[in-house]
Amino acid sequence: AAAAAAGDGAPRAALHARLFAMLLRYKALQGHGFQAAIGPPVWHHLRETLEVGVECFASPLNAYLPAFGSAFADVDAPFGSRGSFFKFKPLSGSYCANPPFVHTIMDETATHILSLLAAAATAPGSPSLSFAVVLPGWTEGEGFQALSASPFLRTKVILAAPDHGFCDGASHQRQDPYRHSPFDTAVLVLQTEKAARKWPVSAPAWEGALRRAFGACVPSEAAVARQAKKTAAALPRNGADDEPARSTAERKSRKRSAAEEEGKNGDGAGRAKKAKPEKKHDKATEKKLNAWVKAKRTKDWETADALREELRQAGIQPETERPARPKESPKE
Question: Which residue spans traverse the membrane (predicted)?
Answer without folding.
Answer: none
